[in-house]
Amino acid sequence: MATKRMTPGFSDQVMGLVKSLRNDAPDCVASGVVDMSTGMLLSYETVDNHPPEVLDLLAGATLDLFQGRTVVMIEDVFKERRGIESDQHFFQEILVNSENLTHLFVRMSEQQDVVAVVVCRKSVNVGMLFAQVRRVVREYGL
Known about the structure:
42% of the residues lie in helices and 25% in strands.
């Protein structure tokens, strides 16, 4: 069965999503899209230059956040206790605050292995960040 990742327009959608996130998320300094099935950063935009190894680590860190061994175990326990037999993941959004930045990771609704990443200044209004990112992600669907 073909996935959206195999369609000709997928690359354009990913680049459009990254650009929209970068433009629409408040106080945004970087945005990107990670494909957790391949471990690749598919596209990104940033206001700063970052060493390639840092960008490569972003994809791995995203994978650990959403599908690390312990996270999967927690999801499996919840599914078992609730009698759910689905491949749907429980963790859909993760907010991480570092010393100077706020990082929001949002799993795409249609393709659970694709995650949008937005990095903003720590002063960002978190409610507005969630609202804008959710709106953009919903527009692109993926």
